[in-house]
């Protein structure tokens, strides 16, 4: 956990936000927030933060999933999770299992015959660039009748 994330957790906890609310806003697990708070003396039995004398919840700030920078959310626009395209791509590359990919296709490589999956509308003929080069310049093809 970065120092920036620690200071954000401390600030939100001092404003009486719950572990769940902080974890959701920062994109980390509740256990991470709870563990840090208990080690830092910020633990306690707190409820969801409410403004004084009213039942309206305070606006919880949101933070970039990658760098932890606070995000400004605009009305009537899709909720932002990242501060920039660079952070978005960095996070996606670091967490490929959490990326929701659409439209998967499967096919058989023309060079090695291995079955592979690709995403997107364009059909692919090769499982990797190496197979493409072998097929293109060396004429290597998979003999489907021999298998």
Map the helices and strands.
Elements: H1 3-14, H2 19-26, H3 30-39, E1 62-63, E2 70-71, H4 85-94, E3 104-108, E4 115-119, H5 129-138
Antiparallel strand pairs: 1-2, 3-4
Helix pairs in contact: 2-3
What does this structure look like?
- It is a single chain.
- This protein has 147 residues and is an alpha+beta fold.
- Helix content is 34%, strand content 10%.
- The protein contains 5 helices and 4 strands; from the N terminus they run H-H-H-E-E-H-E-E-H.
- It has helices at residues 3-14, 19-26, 30-39, 85-94, 129-138, and strands at residues 62-63, 70-71, 104-108, 115-119.
- The protein has a two-stranded antiparallel sheet. It has a two-stranded antiparallel sheet with strand order 3-4.
- A hairpin with a 6-residue loop joins strand 3 and strand 4 (115-119).
- Helix 2 (19-26) packs across helix 3.
- The radius of gyration is 24 Å and the shape is elongated.
- Residues 48-56 have low confidence and may be disordered.
Which key terms come to mind for this protein?
alpha+beta, 5 helices, 4 strands, 10% strand
């Amino acid at each position: 956990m970065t120092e920036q994330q620690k200071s954000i957790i401390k600030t939100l906890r001092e404003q009486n936000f719950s572990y769940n609310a902080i974890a959701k806003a920062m994109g980390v697990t509740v256990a991470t927030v709870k563990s840090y708070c208990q080690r830092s003396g910020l633990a306690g039995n707190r409820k969801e933060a409410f403004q004084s004398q009213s039942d309206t919840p305070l606006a919880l700030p949101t933070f970039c999933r990658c760098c932890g920078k606070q995000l400004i959310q605009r009305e009537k626009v899709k909720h932002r999770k990242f501060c920039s395209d660079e952070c978005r791509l960095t996070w996606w590359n670091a967490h490929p299992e959490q990326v929701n990919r659409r439209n998967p296709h499967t096919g058989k490589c023309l060079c090695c015959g291995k079955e592979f999956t690709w995403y997107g509308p364009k059909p692919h003929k090769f499982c990797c660039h190496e197979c493409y080069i072998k097929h293109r310049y060396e004429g290597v093809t998979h003999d489907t009748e021999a298998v």
